[in-house]
């Protein structure tokens, strides 16, 4: 499958909708590149992506 770019919101809504209230609008709008596309993601993959996205977002905020 080809790489696919989606917003973090799409991943969270599909695999971990209970997390939506805990993420900021900026985090939910982050673009995520998926090597194998959204269709092949598992819930544990979604959790790892969310964790990494939050860490990266926090690092960007600290550097500004």
Describe the structure.
- This protein is of the alpha+beta class.
- It is about 50% helix and about 10% strand.
- The protein has three helices and two strands.
Q: Keywords, please?
A:
single chain, two-stranded antiparallel ribbon, alpha+beta, 64 residues, 3 helices
The average pLDDT is: 88
**Structural Rg:** 12 Å
Structural class: alpha+beta
The parts where pLDDT drops under 50 for at least 5 residues are none
> What is the chains' assembly state?
single chain
Number of helices: 3
Largest sheet: 2 strands, antiparallel
Give a concise summary.
This protein is of the alpha+beta class and 64 residues long.
Write the layout of secondary structure elements.
Blueprint lengths: L3 E4 H8 L9 H4 L2 E4 L8 H21 L1
Antiparallel strand pairs: 1-2
